[in-house]
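Hi U.,

Before I forget, here's the chain from the pilot set. I'm dumping it here mostly so it's searchable later in email.
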Amino acid sequence: MKSPVRLPRSNEFGMLLDIVSYARRGPGHGRALSSAERAQIARTVDRVPEVMIKVSGGGSSVGAVVAHLRYIDRRGALEIETDDGQRIQGEGVERAMLDDWRLPQQEKRDRSPYSGVPGRKGAKLVHNIVFSMPAGTPSDKLLAAVRQFAQQTFSDQHRYAMVMHTDQRHPHVHLVVKAVSELGVRLNIRRATLREWRHDFAATLREQGVPANATERAVRGESRGQKLDGIYRAMRRGASTHYEEQTLVVARELREGSVRTEAGKSKLMATRRSVQRAWRAVAGLLALEGDADLASQVRRFADAMLPALTEKEWVADQLIRHARRRAATDPPPVRAR
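Structure:
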């Protein structure tokens, strides 16, 4: 009898591969992977585009919320779609909408005297959420998916409004959700909440015919986190002090011969080994169940994962790549005779 295949567990990720909801196999107690689980595995190894949901803050005053709405609707130039299906546009519609949400009254309640830390900042009146997909995603289908997701998640509970942006390579939708429901329940967005939302939103996009997936970065073999993505975007704008400081440190270390190892490197490497081991366990399970083709794809996916990089190593890699590009494109120096 063949030994059962077990997926490694990890404290950080719960079940390391959230791709499959896997019951421990044993004689007489195993089960086959469902079609949905196989589809999730196939999407991941095929590198189907990953959905992005980002919570970008939220105002604790009506004035701040109005300012954000004026930013996303380009001062009335773009249409705001509300939770009750209205499409409003123009100067002044933002404050009128918030009056309808009774947001000034909520702000007054939130700022009323209460016990706690003196000078404590008021609670968020809204959550600002961004739904994004890669370039080439049809904007109408993205908007339809966000609309459906918002209806399923917040309808008859939290008021919300959305604005579509197509002026950048990546189409995205700004969703503003009232933090306190019509029944007085406050919406708290935790990491688990975002994970659930990503899975639900990806499913909604697929219903629209848009290929979409939702897995953890580490499971996909990516070590760059949101912090590095933010640094990279700021770097491209020339606005990242953090990047400038880190670049100077890394450049000096490169000139000295090597980049000093960061404290988190060993944990990063251990996580990567666990991820690859788990993927190979998935491949073994698929092979046992007779799906040799998908098992082979999974093994190739695990073997092809790029090295796990710390932040300093990523910066060093960018510097080296930049130097090589310059060396390849700059004309050779003219020697004096």
